[in-house]
Amino acid sequence: MTRAHLQPAALAAAKRRPTVALLLGLALAFCLAVLSIQSSFFAAPGVPGRRLDLDAGDVRELAGFQSRVQQCVARRGLGLTADIIDHCKLVLKFPEGTNSTWFNTQFKIFEPLEYKYDVCETILLWEQYRNMTTVLTREYLDVRPDGWLDYAAKRISQLGADKCYNRTLCDELLSILLPAKPPFHPRQFATCAVVGNSGDLLKTEFGQEIDAHDAVFRDNEAPVNKTYAKHVGLKRDFRLVVRGAARNMAPILKGSSDEALIIKSLTHKEINAVIKELPNPVYLFQGIVLRRGAKGTGMKSIELALSMCDVIDMYGFTVDPGYTEWTRYFSPPRKGHNPLQGRAYYQLLECLGVIRIHSPMRAQRVEDWSAIPSKEEIRRAHAAAFHLKKHETGQPVELGPFSNCKVWGTVDPDYGPVSGTSDMSEARKNSNYSKWELLPLEKLRREAQEHYIQMGGVSLYKMDGNKLDDLVCVRHQHSSS
Predict the structure, then answer these.
(1) What average pLDDT does the segment 358-371 reach?
(2) Distances (CA, A) of 83 to 8, 283, 450
(3) pLDDT greater than 90 at residue 69
(4) Residues 143-167, mean pLDDT to the nearest whole number
(5) CB 102 within 8 A of CB 397
(6) Burial class of residue 273, CB neighbours in 10 A (0-12, 13-18, 19+)
(7) Which residues contact 473 (CB under 8 A, 6 or more apart)?
(8) d(Cα 384, Cα 377) in Å, to the nearest integer?
(9) What is the distance between the alpha carbons of residues 358 and 38, in angstroms, rounded to a whole number?
């Protein structure tokens, strides 16, 4: 049949055939491109074209979790929005016109209005913290390679040397602060309140709510008395202090031995002299270095609390929009800046189920945490992020809770002094140390006992920085066994 004999409809169809063929060809090319990208995405590091058995369900799980985080930020972020980049990365943005008042003198710019975060790395890091020890111990220094020579020197100020060439001297300076093994346990408390020092606490009356927690964490010189009781409560269990504040602890504590002190950074002879006058348990913080805008003693308090608590409620942190001045609830205002990056990171932590934020702009809220992903959603996202991380580094996936142990060591659970040197006996004669270090395992809540059994009595510590794969892991095993 010639072209002249075609009916109009058939002629029109014939004219469309090249276009249809072109579209089909483009669609096929697109599919091949997608398959190529996926193949390279799932390829083993250094082995082009070799596909790993990574279940695409992990990527879908993380993508779905990103959507839940995005929804949570929209509902709880007080103006923040989350823009998803891929299954791991997102950008938290402040609305246009947000008052950015802090000027970075190094880079000659004002604080930006958006911050990129890797949710996979973040959830792995903070879930790891739930299994860790965050107090410096003697067993950590004994097990860590060159722990006494190199690391111990970093925790002592005014030593006069960059290494502990004189082990005896370093031992004398640190022993007053060193328990033999972890004094606290993961899952030890069900609910904890981390209370900052922000002046916005005076705009609320969270006192009774704070005191209802199983344990309360406070910072530096924050007073706890009847004057501020309705705002910040009266319960006192832990206090994380910088070394400057450590010198002033005696009048702050006022003879109370129930509050354990954790010094954030360093010790030296002057601090040790103060410690010897206190009946309180005193330790050095052993945590990671978060290179984020949300830093300082408040963030360290959250790290400390997460290693002991199931649920963390955060009070007295400057996280609300429009807050342009640093204030303390117990002192006059002082010049500061609007901590945009800090606020963004805290909001991310809330939407990852790490903390729950309480502040003046949320004071009238209904206690509805439905926007925050459930424990099961977090568990699945953590498992997917863990699988993805292991595949990216070419490591076996199923290694259990000790997959990131870089250094292993074994100590006798009964070795060494509980805490403090022999000349501390008089100061601590009436101390309530049994509330902490001497608490037997069977006295802990069921969840803490179960965790201890699941971990086989192994303690996990960070080696350095915020890397995920550099843990020091210590077995507690009797020498006779």
Answers:
(1) 77
(2) 51, 41, 39
(3) yes
(4) 92
(5) no
(6) exposed
(7) 402, 405, 407, 408, 409, 458, 459, 460, 461
(8) 11
(9) 42
